[in-house]
């Protein structure tokens, strides 16, 4: 959105509303592929991982679990999960203080067909920022 | 292990007659010492002295570090036990003397002090959390500093030791699996937990000899390792009792050279810490980071401390009784056989039922809230009767007991009083019976598996063959490839193809020095620091055989190690096999014509791969550096190696792990 002098800048208002990270609830129905139940995304991070190498986190000491890839057409993409989301909870279990393996296990429980994720995302803020450039 | 502020204990004065007797190991059968208890203790002391001699001999004779650590641990334990027994002996003698004096001076009747019953105290599942620095844990710089740690647990004169555990920075908690039971502890017991540690040299693992050989071949004694070795070899031979107890040494201790344990932390637990679940207690830490035996303790110890007083587990009193419910008609007396155990008075129909495990007729609970009263002579009965009142759910129920004779009644009352006293002394242990699991006798595992770290290599246990050694070396070199994402290949690399100026002394060496043949590095070492002098120090001279590997890591010097002929040849064939046909066997100098064009191509490849690897983990899964996967002219390594590489990448914490779900 370019700044045209004389015109009200509505983008600023939008920016204020969305300056905090959004929390999204995402419900993913696992897809059965053979004997595996897949969700269709990849995660990175964990309290046992080096947080400095996380390309998605703003704060480089954040040891949370981030979505690093979303398989196109997979259940996660269909449910609205996006790359760069930080996973806060999975089916009520906290994911902000878990090891990488614990996180993976909580997502891949065989007896659960649906996982409900609570994620935070700053993509809208970034989108607005981009649009203002 | 002494508490110096215990006034009841006194050390034996040097040169005194008693000390001389002890030195000679003989005891005059004097009136002071002629009791059963004393001889028991004496036997124990003798036993420990023999054990100590054995441990000294073992320590002097053993060559492996692990054996030395174990022997030193037994030595320390024996010494401490001897001191504890000696002090116990002293205490008993003093008590006897006091008793004699008291008897002589006054004819006071037997003291009416009630003694609480003893009990079993068990401590199990000791866990001591550690607090490594964040950077240490992730970056894994430097050699793996290891310590050997064990605990001593003492109640009175009874000292038990736990197994020894090797601690390094991959461990987050020190766990001792032993369950230790002290059978005769009074409620005022003090369980002293002491943690001893000793610095252990790095990497003296009990692995197979081929591993040892591989590590020996490929690692040299660096500056820091050498320093440690020198310190360890230092014959600063003070006796292994180094806990600062400093008691006058009664017996001439042989000076031992070997690993020395130092007291690292201690704490004292007592009845108030007893609970039927895990609890965390504070540790008092002696020592600081400067000590060689330092282990970064978080400051707590978690354990389960349980107690079973004898009043809960044993029959305290039993006999025939007549019971009737209060308020019932005088004729409704029931004859029972009563057994007082724990918080209950079990009333069986017959005495035989007790052994037969038949359910009792009824049970009267005897707990803290019970009120027991001996009533005066009943109108109908000559003997006294005992009334027991309990509150069962709001209402008060009273039972009346009557024994056969006056003495029996008196004995029962005495038993009840004792039971109440015990319950008041043992407090929370008498609420419910705490379970104590006796450790099942099992064979002590001699070879402790490496305290599991994901970041260590898999053990390769094949026969001691040169091929296993070369395999290990080859794998380690691969690993180095994996980690070479940090370095960039300097542009002057291309200049060093086949440079004739370089000394060809090591013309047998097949590969590019960039590969840095230091496979001695376990995955825990990131930097190639070394103090060995290499013939070609900085320049990657010798044959740049077109191997487009970026310079591994940050080490400025690359190293050669003169290798044996056979190993060398073997390695070269291995590599030739695995990495495509371009690299020829080292035995033949590659014709410059065939190789010359390739380096030129490769250099841009090298820089490309480096730049992509520094922008980490953009789209790749598994996050291993995409060195060889971007269309290099070389054939790709075999799939087995690729999967091994993947596994390594997964386990290496310095990659930022990604998992597909």
From TrEMBL, chain A:
Give the InterPro entries listed for this entry.
PDZ (IPR001478), PDZ_sf (IPR036034), Synaptic_Scaffolding_LAP-MAGUK (IPR050614)
PDZ domain residues are: 25-122
User: Which cellular components does GO assign to this protein?
Assistant: adherens junction; basolateral plasma membrane; cytoplasm; nucleus; postsynaptic density; postsynaptic membrane
Q: Which keywords appear in this protein's UniProt record, sorted alphabetically?
A: Acetylation, Cell membrane, Cytoplasm, Membrane, Nucleus, Phosphoprotein, Wnt signaling pathway
Some GO term, biological process aspect, for this entry: which one?
A: establishment or maintenance of epithelial cell apical/basal polarity
Q: Does the keyword Cell membrane apply?
A: yes
Task: Give the molecular function GO annotations.
Answer: protein kinase binding
- SUPFAM superfamilies xrefs: PDZ domain-like
Provide the topology term for how it sits in the membrane: Peripheral membrane protein
The keyword Acetylation is annotated on this UniProt entry: yes
Q: Where in the cell is it found?
A: Cell membrane; Cytoplasm; Nucleus
What protein does this entry describe? Tax1-binding protein 3
Where is the organism placed in the taxonomic lineage, from the top?
Answer: Eukaryota, Metazoa, Chordata, Craniata, Vertebrata
UniProtKB/TrEMBL annotation, chain B:
Q: Which CDD domains match?
A: PH_rhotekin2
Which is a Gene Ontology cellular component entry for this protein? actomyosin contractile ring
**Organism per entry:** Salvelinus namaycush (Lake trout)
Name-wise, this protein is: Rhotekin-like isoform X1
Q: Where are the transmembrane segments?
A: none
Which PROSITE patterns does this UniProt record tie to the protein?
PH_DOMAIN, REM_1
Q: Where is the PH domain positioned along the sequence?
A: 314-421
> What are its GO biological-process terms?
actomyosin contractile ring assembly; mitotic cytokinesis; septin ring organization; signal transduction
């Amino acid at each position: 959105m370019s700044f045209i002098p004389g015109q009200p800048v509505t983008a600023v208002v939008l920016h204020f509303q969305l300056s905090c990270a959004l929390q999204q609830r995402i419900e993913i129905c696992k897809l059965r592929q053979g004997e595996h139940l897949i969700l269709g995304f990849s995660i990175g991070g964990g309290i046992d991982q080096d947080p400095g190498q996380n390309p998605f986190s703003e704060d480089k000491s954040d040891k949370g679990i981030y979505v690093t890839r979303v398989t196109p057409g997979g259940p996660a993409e269909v449910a609205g999960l996006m790359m760069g989301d930080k996973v806060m909870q999975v089916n009520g279990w906290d994911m902000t203080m878990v090891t990488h393996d614990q996180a993976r296990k909580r997502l891949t429980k065989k007896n659960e067909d649906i996982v409900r994720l609570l994620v935070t995302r700053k993509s809208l803020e970034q989108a607005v920022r981009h649009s203002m450039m | 292990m002494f508490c110096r502020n215990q006034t009841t204990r006194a050390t034996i004065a040097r040169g005194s007659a008693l000390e001389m007797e002890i030195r000679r190991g003989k005891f005059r059968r004097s009136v002071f010492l002629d009791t059963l208890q004393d001889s028991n203790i004496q036997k124990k002391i003798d036993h420990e002295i023999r054990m100590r001699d054995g441990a000294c001999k073992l320590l002097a004779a053993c060559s492996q570090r692990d054996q030395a650590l174990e022997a030193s641990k037994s030595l320390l334990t024996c010494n401490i036990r001897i001191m504890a027994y000696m002090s116990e002996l002293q205490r008993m003698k003093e008590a006897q003397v006091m008793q004699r004096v008291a008897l002589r001076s006054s004819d006071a009747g037997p003291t009416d002090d009630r003694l609480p019953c003893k009990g079993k105290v068990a401590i199990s599942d000791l866990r001591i959390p550690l607090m490594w620095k964040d950077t240490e844990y992730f970056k894994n710089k430097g050699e793996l500093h290891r310590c050997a740690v064990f605990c001593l647990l003492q109640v009175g004169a009874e000292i038990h030791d736990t197994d020894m555990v090797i601690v390094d920075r991959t461990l987050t908690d020190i766990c001792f699996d032993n369950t230790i039971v002290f059978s005769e502890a009074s409620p005022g017991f003090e369980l002293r937990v002491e943690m001893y540690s000793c610095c252990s040299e790095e990497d003296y693992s009990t692995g197979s000899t081929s591993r040892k050989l591989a590590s020996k071949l490929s690692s040299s004694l660096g500056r820091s390792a050498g320093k440690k070795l020198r310190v360890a070899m230092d014959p600063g031979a003070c006796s292994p009792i180094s806990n600062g107890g400093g008691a006058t040494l009664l017996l001439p201790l042989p000076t031992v050279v070997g690993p020395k344990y130092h007291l690292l932390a201690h704490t004292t637990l007592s009845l108030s810490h007893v609970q039927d679940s895990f609890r965390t207690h504070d540790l008092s830490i002696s020592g600081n980071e400067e000590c060689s035996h330092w282990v970064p303790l978080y400051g707590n110890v978690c354990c389960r401390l349980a107690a079973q007083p004898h009043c809960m587990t044993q029959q305290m009193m039993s006999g025939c009784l007549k019971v009737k419910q209060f308020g019932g008609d005088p004729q409704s007396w029931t004859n029972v056989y009563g057994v007082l155990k724990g918080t209950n008075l079990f009333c069986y129909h017959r005495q035989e039922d007790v052994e037969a495990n038949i359910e009792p007729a009824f049970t009267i609970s005897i707990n803290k809230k019970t009120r027991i009263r001996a009533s005066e002579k009943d109108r109908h009965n000559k003997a006294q009767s005992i009334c027991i009142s309990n509150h069962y759910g709001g209402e008060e129920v009273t039972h009346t007991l009557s024994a056969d004779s006056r003495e029996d009644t008196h004995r029962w009352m005495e038993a009840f009083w004792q039971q109440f006293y015990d319950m008041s002394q043992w407090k929370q242990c008498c609420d419910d019976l705490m379970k104590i699991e006796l450790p099942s006798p099992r064979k002590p595992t001699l070879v402790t598996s490496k305290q599991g770290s994901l970041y260590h290599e898999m053990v390769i246990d094949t026969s001691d063959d040169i091929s296993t050694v070369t395999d290990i070396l080859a794998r380690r070199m691969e690993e180095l490839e994996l980690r070479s994402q940090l370095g960039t290949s300097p542009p002057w690399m291309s200049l060093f193809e086949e440079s004739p100026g370089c000394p060809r002394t090591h013309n047998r060496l097949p590969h590019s020095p960039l590969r840095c043949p230091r496979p001695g590095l376990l995955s825990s070492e990131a930097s190639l620091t070394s103090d060995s002098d290499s013939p070609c120090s900085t320049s990657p001279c010798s044959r740049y055989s077109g191997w487009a590997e970026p310079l591994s890591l940050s080490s400025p010097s690359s190293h050669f190690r003169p290798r044996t002929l056979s190993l060398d040849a073997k390695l070269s064939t291995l590599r030739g096999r695995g990495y495509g046909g371009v690299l020829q066997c080292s035995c033949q100098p590659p014709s410059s014509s065939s190789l010359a064009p390739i380096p030129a191509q490769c250099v841009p490849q090298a820089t490309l791969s480096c730049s992509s690897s520094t922008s980490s983990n953009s789209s790749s899964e598994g996050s291993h550096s995409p060195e060889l996967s971007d269309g290099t002219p070389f054939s790709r390594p075999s799939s087995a190696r690729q999967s091994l590489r993947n596994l390594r990448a997964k386990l290496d914490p310095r990659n930022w792990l990604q998992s597909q779900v």
